[in-house]
Amino acid sequence: MTGSFWNLLDSASRYRLLVSGHGKQHLLETASRILSLAGTGGDKGQLLDIGIDVMLTAWEDSPFDGQLAANLLNINSRLSFLPDIYKLIMEIVVSNYNIPANINYFQKLAAEKDTEKLISYLEKQLENDSGNFFWLGHYLDITLFAGQFETPSILDEMALPEIMKPVVNKYKGDFAFCSADFEKSIDIWSDAKRKSIPGQTLLRIAEALFRTGKFEEARRIWRERMTTRPWQVNTWLSAYDRIMTPTPENSAIEGRIALCLYTYNKADDLEFALKSVAESPLENLKIVALSNGCTDSTSSVLSAWKEKLGNRLEIVGLPVNVGAPAARNWLKHHPAIGSCDYVAYLDDDAVLPENWQGLMADAIAKYPDAGVWGCKVADFGREEIIQHADIHLRESFEVKDNLLQGFSFSYFESFNQDMDYGQYDYCRPCTSVTGCFHLFRRDVLEFSDDFDLRFSPSQYDDFDHDLSLQKKGQQVVYNGLLKVLHRRRSGNSVKLSREARGAGAGNVMKLEAKYSARTIEEIIENDINNLESDFSEKSVKLASFLDS
Predict the structure, then answer these.
(1) Cα 84–64–66 angle (5° rounding)?
(2) How far apart are CA 185 and CA 69, in angstroms?
(3) Could you say which of 66, 250, 252, 423 has the lowest number of CB atoms within 10 Å?
(4) Which residues contact 40 (CB under 8 A, 6 or more apart)?
(5) What confidence tens digit (pLDDT) does each residue in 489-548 have?
(6) Residues 130-181: pLDDT tens digits?
(7) Which residues, in sequence order, are CB contacts of 136 under 8 Å at separation 6+?
(8) Are the CB atoms for 204 and 174 separated by under 8 Å?
(9) Which residues contact 149 (CB under 8 A, 6 or more apart)?
(10) What is the model's pTM?
């Protein structure tokens, strides 16, 4: 891999950097591990440099975080690594940052994920404590997530010192980018001396340039950032796919595809899903839709699409809702898929892009031996919010194999810790892909275990199936260049009922009981090896190409 520092890292630190170089909490956890490692001997200086830079990157994502700024200033007092402008900005942030004595109610609202109440509460706190960057930072982060793109006006009202311009521009540019005004975001982010623009903002400028067709300008920034922060693997991976393997347009998957849907009382969502399928290439497609005991207008929606699609659509009706795993199995064993080369499962509330076949054909060409290929999933109507990207399991350091729990189920969620600035637009192996839309080789699906009925009615049946595939030596591949929109929000951003949380928690327990600690360790070891091999090959090829 590019950079000798990789050999100095322990397996856990290397794994975290390979998983992602983004997401504030992920970066802070990774920085902490590397800095701790630096204290145990070895090449202390190089490890300190990497750990501090990872920590600094987390601050660039959240520059009003006074605690983080204070920690960096403390380290800087001993090691003198901060540029002067960073030091001055951090000193201002620290002097204007005060954690209130009682933030219990704020934490309660945050835990409940009640965004409307949370924003209202923060607005009141800003009125009463207007100069406190504690409230300002949280307010900007939450309103950006909520899509309140007029929020940056508060930064003008506060009349911050001129030295704070890179921070002000960072937030204004983020809001412009997330509202899809990429030209405006470039103008805002670039309105400062180049040396004062944070590294994370430079990456966002490159993404905005790429999205507005200024490829060569974007490529120059990518190259600079890969040199400056070689540990930030996302930059290498996304640049590799865009520079070395540009995706072909208007191509289709070679072979016949069975596209399978199962649905339960989501007639409106199903209409969107089928419309997106119908607007994509149909020549090699057989669509099988299973109505899972629906009692709403689903039958009318399916009948209308049957008239439009004719024999390309086959409808299966069940008298009761059998749940997701059983529905997937019913479709897996349906005679219609026997003549197909691939089988895709699409959620009834997911929307495909028109060129999904071309994008998936590209992933198949890159990883022809994979058993299943997945996608990046984003919010319908808020495409800048990532629901799922490539999934990698956390290690179960403290769990012992016992009668009820083989391991502690958890995965890295860096993709949920920031908005989508293109940092997950790449294709590579992983542990699992979301079942919102995934594509199997038919022979692999037939060879694999059925979806486990113990995970009925839903949740984690797709994750479990990916784990079982890997136990049999099959590779799972994530294709972040294919973005599928999900009409139902999922992940940590969702406010769930007690019943839904209980159902999910119950299935987590089943998952933890199903697999031994050793099996999970082997899956993680295999994932680390795949990530290292994939990144090593791509980084060497890309570096050689850029130097030529």
Answers:
(1) 80
(2) 25
(3) 250
(4) none
(5) 765 555 567 787 888 899 999 999 999 989 999 999 999 999 999 999 999 999 999 887
(6) 889 999 999 999 999 999 988 788 998 888 999 999 999 999 999 999 999 9
(7) 64, 126, 154, 158
(8) yes
(9) 175, 176, 178, 179
(10) 0.94
